[in-house]
Each structure stands twice: as structure tokens, then as C-alpha cells.
Request: fold
Amino acid sequence: MLPVTPYAYPVAHIPPGGDHIPRGGTRNRPGGTGRPPDETPYRPRAIQNLPGPILTASGIVSIALTLTTAGYGELVWSVLCGLTGALCLRFGIGLMVLEQDRIKAAKAQDRAHHGDN
Reply:
């Protein structure tokens, strides 16, 4: 399981009053560059959850291929496509559920870190 840090949401660690100044920054420019210190301009934000939707979409396509091959009477291809479709859907949805649990845990830890209820 991935460790959850208070910086899971880059701007969530800056209180609305601006009392907290991140590493090397000023009140108006966190981190000295106008963005939170742990976020670079070239790092995609949602890269962690990308395998889940890709596997789920692949599973849906594979189930469609299963129906197509079954319509043509190809039993072996139907079984193979059905098996890959089921596995892709299972692991894709599982990865998305795990990512949502990680996000919920990060929000809860962030709330506990700042004392918000």
C-alpha cells in the first residue's frame, strides 16, 4: 500500500488564512514559484489512476469482441476474449477502487493533520 502524506493534495496543506508558508516561499507565492513545492510543471496529476480506467476500457472492448466472435461461431476466440475481458474488468475496477480508498485516506489524514473535523 502506498504511504499517504499530507501533501497528497498539493494546495490542501495551505490554510485559507495563508498562515503557513511552505519551503522557501512567501505568503503570495508558495515555494517561491507560484505552485506548491512538491508539484513540478511537467508532472501529470492523475497519472496514479491511469491503469484502472485503461484496464476497464480494455475489458469492455474485449467483452464486445467476445460477442462478435461468438456471433461468427469461433468458440476458442470467444473463450479467450471472454477470459481477458473478465480479467481486465476485474483488475481495472479493483485498481480504481484502491485509488479511491487511497484518496479517502489522504483526505482523512489531511483533515487530522490540520485539526479540521
About this structure: The longest helix spans residues 75-114. The mean pLDDT is 76. The CA atoms of residues 19 and 27 lie 8 Å apart. Helices lie at 51-72, 75-114.
